[in-house]
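// run 5 | inverse folding | seed 20
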C-alpha cells in the first residue's frame, strides 16, 4: 500500500467513503429531531469549522499501482465547544487546554498503520498550531463484543453506521494516550503535546513495539508452517 496523509478540505469531502460523509454522530446535537440529509449537515458543520478554526481532519489516501486513488482512513478533531455530542459522555468535560479527537478509523481489513499515521498527522498539525494536548472519548469494549444496551447508547441514528464512531481505547494507549477519566465503557484519554516533540518520541516508541510484536508473530507463523501446524485453529492443535 502506497499511503499518503493529507489535510481534509471541502473539495475532498465527496471523496470520503459514503458512510463517513453521512455520519453526524459528533456533529449534530442528539435532540431527537429527524434528519433528512445528514450528508449535507456534515458538510455544513465541516465548512463552518474550517472557516472559524482551520483544519479539522486528516485523510489517508491509498495510491494503487494502476494510478487510481481512494480514501482508506480519516481522523476528525475539533475544539470541544464545536462538538455537540461532548456533553453526553459520563467522562466529560474535555480539558480546557485540549482539542478533541472525535474519531480515527480506516476501512475494514486494512493494516493498523493507516490509523497510526493519521494520529501522527493530527498531532503534528496541533503542535504546529500551539495546542497543548489532544483528548478522546474512547471505547473500552471491542466493537465485536458490544452488548445491545451499549450499542443503543452510541446509535448513529439515520446515518446507519455499522460500527460506533468511537476510537478503541487500546489503540489510543498504544499511541501514547493515557486515561485521565476512567470509565467502564467510555474512558477519556489524553496525549500531552506541550513538551515540544516529546509526544513524537512516545508515538514512535509505541510504533516500534507494534512492529516488534508483528515481527514476532510472523516468526512464530513461519515456525509453525515448518512443523505443519500453521492451519490448526487456536486451542485446537493436536485435536481430532
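// decoded
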Amino acid at each position: 500500500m502506497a499511503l499518503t496523509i493529507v489535510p481534509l478540505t471541502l473539495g475532498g469531502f465527496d471523496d470520503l467513503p459514503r458512510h463517513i460523509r453521512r455520519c453526524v454522530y459528533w456533529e449534530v446535537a442528539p435532540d431527537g429531531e429527524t434528519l433528512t440529509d445528514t450528508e449535507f449537515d456534515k458538510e455544513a458543520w465541516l465548512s463552518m469549522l474550517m472557516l472559524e478554526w482551520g483544519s479539522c481532519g486528516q485523510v489517508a489516501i491509498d495510491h494503487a499501482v494502476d494510478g487510481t486513488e481512494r480514501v482508506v482512513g480519516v481522523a476528525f478533531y475539533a475544539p470541544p465547544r464545536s462538538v455537540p455530542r461532548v456533553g453526553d459522555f459520563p467522562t466529560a468535560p474535555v480539558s480546557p487546554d485540549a482539542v478533541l479527537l472525535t474519531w480515527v478509523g480506516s476501512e475494514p481489513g486494512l493494516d493498523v498503520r493507516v490509523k497510526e499515521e493519521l494520529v501522527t498527522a493530527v498531532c503534528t498539525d496541533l503542535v504546529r498550531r500551539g495546542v497543548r494536548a489532544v483528548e478522546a472519548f474512547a471505547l473500552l469494549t471491542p466493537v465485536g463484543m458490544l452488548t445491545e444496551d451499549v450499542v443503543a447508547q452510541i446509535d448513529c441514528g439515520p446515518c446507519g453506521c455499522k460500527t460506533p464512531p468511537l476510537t478503541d481505547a487500546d489503540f489510543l494507549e498504544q499511541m501514547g494516550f493515557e486515561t485521565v477519566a476512567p470509565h467502564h465503557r467510555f474512558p477519556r484519554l489524553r496525549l500531552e503535546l506541550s513538551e515540544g516533540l516529546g509526544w513524537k518520541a512516545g508515538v514512535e516508541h509505541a510504533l516500534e513495539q507494534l512492529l516488534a510484536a508483528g515481527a514476532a508473530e510472523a516468526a512464530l507463523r513461519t515456525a509453525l508452517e515448518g512443523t505443519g501446524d500453521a492451519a490448526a485453529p487456536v486451542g485446537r492443535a493436536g485435536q481430532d
